[in-house]
Amino acid sequence: MTPLFYFEENMRYALLAILSVFLVASASAQVAPLPSDGCDSEAYGCPAGRVPSRPPTEATIPIPPPAHIEPRSLALADGVLYLGTSAGAIYTSRDGGQTWQGLAKFRFDYVIDRIVVDGDHIYLAAWTLSDPTQGSFLVSDDRGATWNLTLNKSIRGIAISGNILVIGALDGVFRSRDFGRTFEPISANITDVQSIGIDPVDPSYIFIGTWHLGYYTHNGGATWHQIAKGIINDSDFFSIVLDGETIYIGACSGIYKGNDDGQQYHKEKTKTDARRTKVIRQINHNTLYAGTTDGVWVTVDGGKSWKRRGNRNIVVNDMVFTSPNHLVIATSRFSVIWSDDGGKSFTQAQF
């Protein structure tokens, strides 16, 4: 016979489970309620069986407080800024990043790490918080009014040259010639891709960064060569900028500069201990900005010297320029901030 305390113990756990469900539901009711799977429709990367709904409009999207989301990615097209977040939502700004409005929301567990806008096409790469090896690639052909899920992969890099779209995923590099509807693999034995640079004139010339150094090809992926000389071993490549025959790389070990043959690089001197460089943006041939975990750094002499701009506590996820002096940054600690003096001072954006 089963002892009485066994039933009492199980009854107590059952009551606690019911109570915890009630408390979670009550707490969730105080914020924007979401479906149990966090989805709006199958086209938004949701499980099959959900009835597709129209994409939410700007006026109907609940905007989470900035403290509850992390800005992750930025893009600029025709004066409109696009922001991807860790809450599965996209926002837009039409005043240089000073104020933001909701454009679309997807699964609440999506981390939108890449946004690229090309004409009316918006390309979005997201991975899931519960399993970073899973993710989705979504495409809009009408500036965000409607979306299509075209690939189920954890994609970390996107680049465009002409009508060629190249993406980097955890299982390799893929190319599309039809605006992201279909893809073909163009790499062999290359994994954990998280950044891409592509020549704007010759799309067969591609640089990619991985969690362990990088690779380049001059023939559209038929052959690949590793980038390693002069770079600290085991460096993650977060950002790649192609400037003619000069290449800049933002890595976990700092900023590197080399030439287009990918053979020899040297580390830029930034006089900082926190060397993790998430993004590099180029203003002109001599002026580049680097977003790091140690603030924003700038060079005005083509990388010969670098100086910090603003607060060193700024941890940069992404940044864009709307003009040579107007800078918008997605940060880990201060939400979105903007500057109209080239990064000497910053103001926090309003959501």
List key phrases describing it.
Methylamine Dehydrogenase, Chain H, 1 helix, four-stranded antiparallel beta sheet, 351 residues, mainly beta, disordered N terminus, 28 strands, 7% helix
Explain this structure to me?
This protein is mainly beta and 351 residues long. The chain has a single domain, classed as YVTN repeat-like/Quinoprotein amine dehydrogenase (Methylamine Dehydrogenase, Chain H), CATH 2.130.10. The chain is 7% helix and 42% strand. The protein contains 1 helix and 28 strands. The chain has one helix at residues 4-29, and strands at residues 71-77, 80-85, 89-93, 101-105, 110-118, 121-128, 135-140, 148-151, 155-161, 164-169, 172-176, 184-185, 193-198, 206-210, 214-217, 225-227, 237-243, 246-251, 254-259, 265-267, 277-282, 288-292, 295-299, 307-309, 316-323, 326-331, 336-339, 347-348. Strands 1-2-3-4 form a 4-stranded antiparallel β-sheet, with no helix packed on it. The protein is globular. The protein starts with a helix and ends with a strand.
